[in-house]
Specification:
This protein is mostly helical and about 160 residues long. The chain has helices spanning about 1-20, 25-40, 50-70, 75-80, 85-90, 95-105, 110-120, 130-145, 145-150. Helix 2 (about 25-40) packs across helix 3, helix 3 (about 50-70) runs antiparallel to helix 5 (about 85-90) and helix 5 crosses helix 7 (about 110-120).
Length: about 160
């Protein structure tokens, strides 16, 4: 019973937070669902909602729709031409922490967005074909070695 009340309270808080934006009703609904899923999974019912929550919702809403809308495609061109994938890239540096979060959880093609966003790659030039899981490890290692990059360059 206690958990149900916590979820209801969180739902009201998230709905109010998302409704205070200038987003369309459909986008507000997607962000609401994304934030609720995240907060419930983390058992985070009380902390204040912030701009970071909105950015997280933006990223994961596009990520979820991108994965769902392209999961049956075999063509990389079609997968990477999705409007939701482009929206992730258009988030720019704000998407980087969430991409890293996702590829640390499990290797994913969203790793390709890092090259587009950052304008460089960590893949050695002599490597023509690098599996996605290995590319994910390379990017994760790059950011582990360059921790200050996330806190300085990407904070803006």
């Amino acid at each position: 019973m206690q958990r149900k009340k916590l979820v209801e309270s969180l739902a009201r808080k998230v709905k109010e937070f998302v409704n205070d934006t200038t987003l369309t009703e459909d986008v507000q609904k997607s962000y609401y669902e994304t934030l609720m899923e995240y907060r419930i999974a983390k058992n985070d019912f009380d902390s204040e909602l912030t701009l970071t929550d909105l950015e997280r919702a933006e990223f994961y809403t596009h990520y979820k729709h991108w994965r769902e809308s392209t999961m049956l495609y075999q063509s990389m061109d079609k997968i990477l031409d999705s409007s939701h994938y482009r929206a992730i890239i258009n988030m720019g540096k704000r998407a980087v922490p969430y991409i890293l979060e996702q590829i640390q959880e499990r290797p994913d093609m969203v790793v390709f967005a890092l090259r587009k966003i950052l304008g460089f790659t960590v893949i050695p030039k002599n490597r023509k074909i690098v599996p996605v899981d290995e590319q994910c490890r390379m990017w994760i290692n790059y950011f582990k070695k360059n921790k200050n990059v996330l806190t300085t360059e990407f904070a803006s």
